[in-house]
Amino acid sequence: MAYQERTTVGYGSRVGNSFRGIFGGFIIFIAGTALLWWNEGRVVKTDKMLNEAQGVTVELENIDRINPEMDGKLVHATGFANTQDSLIDPIFGVGVTAVRLVRDVEYYQWVEQSHQERKEKLGGKQEITTTYTYKKQWTSSPVESADFHDPSYQKSNYVLNSADSERWFAQNVTFGAFQLNERQIQSISGEEPVALSLDSATLAGWNKECQQVLSCQNGTHTDSLLLVHVRDNQLYYGVSPNSPAVGDVRITFTKVMPAQITIIAQQKGNTFTSFRAKNGKTFSTLVMGTKDAAEIYEGAHEDNHIIMWILRIVGVLLVIGGLRGIFGILETLMKVVPFLANIVGFGVGLICFVVGLVWSLVIIALAWLFYRPLIGIALLAIAGFLICFFAFKAKKNSR
């Protein structure tokens, strides 16, 4: 059953919050503008860096010996990344010879969710109804139920065991005659299950500890319960892995094995470092499998432009949201008559959207005018057209 709380916010408090929101709106507006400018410079510099890097990339045909003549050059090489390092989980004793060992821990817990409904009142007051609902689900960390709003769910969570998710990496990974650096080692992917093999005495000890926790929690005799289960690559704490209950914990182990990789990086002795372009941007990459240099650079250009559009959208939304925060006071002042406030709010929102969009186009155009003049002039022309179009529509409507 849902639990509800009702609060009322007075007109004076709402106006005060809106005045404070003006400052926050300015901050968000400036942040959005700065992001738009910075992003356009970033994408241009990254494209130039990638073009420069691609122009000087050479093939490293043989990775089984170190060629001093290739030292300092940006190389493209394909080969097998191998390691003999043993990785061991110090808590659960799981060990493998691999590039990476991963322990992922999940807890079955009650989780609080909230939903708010706002109702405008004549005179500028607002009634807020917050509805809290609760459901059981797997989470990445234990949930503190003492802070739940519904008293009947408070202190309802506990765990049979507690451990953090962890990742261990091999320190020595070879690539022919070369040693991969830390960043390259962490870039190797392709997780697969770890077959668990735990001795019965260890499992029995863990099971006894869980029985004590469960006994303290529900006050019943639990000595006959089996609470620790091993299923493939998963260690499960609970009565039944097929029917999870609050307090259950599942710990999953995976590994990344030696594999075929392709790298583009600057050779430095018996290892690799990042290439630094003339504009100061750096580049090095590791991809799984066998890929030629042209394919890798094409993918890097595509990723750069995807990030560009994501940041553009974020920047535009920040600019519009900042303007909405600055001029939101106009809507709040009209809250004494909710109907009029809705009309003013719609108008303010529309104006903020149009002005924010045009402002964003101008900033993007100025940035491109600074970094790439021809495209910048075209964007400025589009922004000018939009300004004239909306000005004409407004003048026509006023007549």
Summarize this, please?
The protein is α+β, with helices and mostly antiparallel strands and 399 residues long. It has two domains: 9-56 and 296-398, no CATH class; 84-108 and 154-257, no CATH class. It is 43% helix and 27% strand.
**Which residues form runs of ≥5 with pLDDT under 50?**
none
Count the beta strands. Answer: 19
Overall pLDDT, averaged?
Answer: 90
Number of helices: 6
Structure classification? alpha+beta
Largest sheet: 8 strands, antiparallel
Order of helices and strands: EHEEEEEEEEEHEHEEEEEEEEHHH
The share of residues in helices is 40-55%
Percent strand equals 25-35%
Question: What is the general shape?
Answer: flat
Rounded Rg? 30 Å
Distance between the ends: 57 Å
Task: Provide structural commentary.
Helix 1 packs antiparallel against helix 4. The strands form four sheets. Strands 1, 6, 7, 8, 11, 12, 13 and 14 form an eight-stranded antiparallel beta sheet that branches. Strands 2, 3, 9, 10, 15, 16 and 19 form a seven-stranded mixed beta sheet that branches. The protein contains six helices and 19 strands. It has two domains: 9-56 and 296-398, no CATH class; 84-108 and 154-257, no CATH class. The chain is flat and about 85 Å long. The chain has helices at 11-56, 182-187, 200-218, 293-333, 338-371, 373-398; strands at residues 3-9, 58-59, 74-82, 86-88, 95-97, 100-120, 126-139, 166-169, 174-175, 178-179, 191-193, 228-231, 234-237, 249-256, 259-268, 271-273, 275-276, 282-283, 285-288. Helices cover 43% and strands 27% of the residues.
